[in-house]
Specification:
Layout (H helix, E strand, L loop, with lengths): L6 E5 L18 E8 L4 E2 L2 H10 L9 E10 H4 L3 E3 L2 E4 L11 E8 L2 E8 L13 E3 L9 E5 L10
Antiparallel strand pairs: 1-2, 2-3, 2-4, 4-5, 6-7, 6-10, 7-8, 8-9
Length: 159
């Protein structure tokens, strides 16, 4: 259902950010990203990662690649796949259940992961929940299930 995404892990200590006592970061030790190729319309797979070294990713091919960061949360109460910015999800809580008129889109802004409610394509709902955002962390105990990504499944979102 989903393309295998190339995942990059970076040790936070190598990024130069340390606590005042120089012990390194206190929250985890790695950040993970996946990369969407806007030209080929797919997530980079592991063989393309090697090829991308030749493409000089620092120049980013005039905006060709879009990086999405791992949110630190997983599907199914922490037992499933990792959730990244750009994932489209449903939960077991209103208004993001399968039978409701909304889906959630994971977004990353200013160092925070948000779960933004978006109207499902073709949904006939009334109200003002479209565009409301909660901290993703607030949904950590909900049974979150990924149903797509904003790139691979834009048809899931209201246009």
């Amino acid at each position: 259902m989903f393309a295998v995404a190339a995942i990059w892990k970076m040790n936070r200590n190598n990024l130069g950010g340390r606590d005042p006592k120089g012990r390194g970061y206190t929250m985890g030790s790695e950040m993970e990203f996946r990369m969407w190729d806007t030209e080929e319309k797919q997530f980079m797979n592991h063989s393309r990662v090697i090829e991308s070294k030749v493409l000089d990713l620092e120049k980013n091919g005039d905006g060709r690649f879009i990086y999405q960061q791992y949110s630190g949360q997983k599907e199914c109460n922490g037992k499933g796949a990792k959730l990244f910015a750009g994932d489209i999800i449903v939960t077991d809580q209103y208004p993001l259940r399968e039978e409701d008129g909304y889906v959630g889109v994971i977004e990353h802004d200013d160092g925070v992961f948000w779960l933004t409610r978006r109207m499902k394509s073709g949904a006939e709902v009334r109200g003002m929940s479209d565009g409301i955002a909660d901290y993703l962390y607030e949904h950590r105990e909900n049974n979150i299930r990924r149903i797509g990504t904003i790139f691979e499944n834009p048809e899931l979102l209201e246009v």
